[in-house]
Amino acid sequence: MQVKQVFSNGSVDVKNFTFKFGSLNDCQRITYDTNSTDNIIQNFIYNEQGVLEKAFAQNNRVYYFWLESGLVTKREEAGFPADLGEDVMARNIYIYNADKQLTGIDFYVRQPTSVDLVLLQRYVYEYDGHGNIVKLNYINPGSPQNNSYTLYTHDDKVNPYHNFEPKVNISAYNPYNKNNILTQKTYRASDPSTVLNEITYSYQYDEGGYPTYSLTTSSGSSPLQTYFTYQH
Questions:
Q1: How far apart are CA 72 and CA 221, in angstroms?
Q2: What residue numbers bound the domain in which 40 lies?
């Protein structure tokens, strides 16, 4: 169980992420401390059956809708302290394959002059035989010239977010991967010779194969160091 994670861009910025769990090992809160200022990333609210229903921070509320199989099918976001209905600002629709792997997310956003939600972007995932995402396609219905895709490679060690619930992304650590990302390279779909972004990751591990330290490097950015702390 991960209880703390520290990001550091040298002396530029340090973020201490803290995870608070309930008696059923359900994550109840994620906060981060930057320059002695406590910021709530998400509070998670569960129903009596232990199913996540709502998450909120200082400036928004997020609502989750589930399939009977236990997979989240929809995520809706409303500006805080607004509720749902016509106040929905964004919506994610989740798509799965027969193996219950996430294969797609349709991302809708509210238009500035109406309450209509328009499909802004579609994410399509492809997996290898180990359960890792090896390709992520970014499809822009309104501007196909901006379509792109990212290719990934992974290690063979434990991704500490793989069994993390609820499945939320912290930095680049994707909860849908079994292992940890080693490289990711993004290309323009219309011109695969054009590399839009490239990131590499290196790790140190404990005896159980969990990362205790990672170094993230990308062009144009300072190297990012990450330290992991676990509770057993």
A1: 34
A2: 1-231
